[in-house]
Structures are given as C-alpha cells and as structure tokens.
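Work Package 3 (structural annotation) set out to generate three-dimensional models for the target panel prioritized at the project kickoff. During this period the team completed the workflow that converts sequence records into discrete structure tokens, so that structures can be stored uniformly alongside our sequence database. As a representative example, we reproduce one entry of 262 residues exactly as it appears in the project archive.
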Amino acid sequence: MNRKPIFAANWKMNKGASETEDFIKSFLSKLQGQDFPCEIVIAPPSISLPKLADLLHNANAGQNAHAIQIAAQNCSQFDSGAYTGEISVLMLREFFVHYVILGHSERRAIYGETDAIINAKIKKAREANLKPIFCIGETLAEREGGKLESVLRTQITGGLDGVSEKDLGETVIAYEPVWAIGTGVTASSQQAQDAHAFVRSVIADLYGADAAAKIRIQYGGSVKPGNAAELMACPDIDGALIGGAALEPQSFLEIIRNGSAD
C-alpha cells in the first residue's frame, strides 16, 4: 500500500506571532524549488494560527505555500458556550486549519484527558472536516511492565469508539512512546516498527485489513535529522510528529529531506 508520508511540526507552547513569521519566511525560502513526496504540517500555538494562516494563504506567501498544511494542537469537544480558554472546531476552520492533534501524552498526563474525552474530540473534529492526528503511546513503566500492547489497544479502541471507517480514513495515528518525548531518547527503529505493526494489527481487528493498510501511522519521540532516515525506512512508519527538532527551519527541513529519501 502506497501511503503518503506526513511530517508534522508540533511547536507546543513555543513561537508567538513574530517568531512564527520569522520561521515561515525562512522555511519557505529553504523549501523553494524542492518537491518532497510527503505532506508537511505545522501546528503552532493557537494564538499564532492567524499569523500562520496569513503567511501561507496570502498572495505573497510563495509558490511552495500550498504544500504546507496547518494543524491545531487541540480543540474542544463542544461547539460553543461557557468553556473559558477553549477553542471550537468551527473557530479553527476560519484559519484554514486542516489537522488537529488530539490525545497527545501531555494532554493526557498534565490536563487529565481520558480516552472518552479524546474520542469526543475526534468525532467533533470530523464533524467539521478536520483531520485528527490521534496520539497514542506508553510510559516507560508500562513498557517495562509488559503492558505495551494492552495500553495501545485500550487507547486505540477507546479513542476510536464509534468512529466510522470513512472518518478513520481521514485520521492519522501518531505513535509516541512517552518515555522518548523530549528526552533525547529515541525508540530503536525495530522497537518503533514493532509498535507500529501492532497498531496496524489493532486497526485491522477493528476495521479490516484494507483500512489498516491505508491508515497512516507517524512516529514521534525525539525524531532528529540524524535518525529520520532509519525510522522512516520502516515499512509501517508513515512520517513523524516532531517536537523540539521542528522549532528550527533547517532542522525541520532536514528531517523531511532525510525521511523522504528513497
């Protein structure tokens, strides 16, 4: 199955509007004239979404701007109302957002998001035709305790409960071992491949072999220019969700270039 790789930059709580402008101008300049067989996605903080949308969609953004999709880092499971600090999917649509990161381990661990909340957000995103980047992953204690597969299966089945096969087809799964996020420690290519293959097998159990063969599964967890090629060479890894290494234009570009190499 020929799945188009997707490389997504998750800036987390970094880069306000002025830094976003600096990054995009530099990145577009470096991207000029290059054509990679992948999707490129940038997820800035919500406050920087308007600036990113302007830069990528106005007449002066440059010929490569069409190759970059905008993602949000989160969304509400509600349409509107008394939810201070939240952002609805319809608000995100106004800024040309196509993807939304949901279920990230930081949202689970710091803000207490459960599989049920993540499931509600995935469904709400699909109602607005946003494409979820659905994050799953185990802690070090869970891996060392032999719970890797049970944790991933629980997160997948809970997060996708009631999600149709059609909506699954517009969803990207991001496998991120929690112990490798921002630590500088990366899962070996074999560890990553084994986990991705297991995730695909769970999707096959839930939706069938065809859906499993089509869905894209990213790897996230200290992805860098130096390890991108080895990780992306694995048959079940279809791109990367990148944190710290995507905060600098040249580093992000090198990950895309190295990860896209034949």
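The first helix runs from residue 17 to 31.
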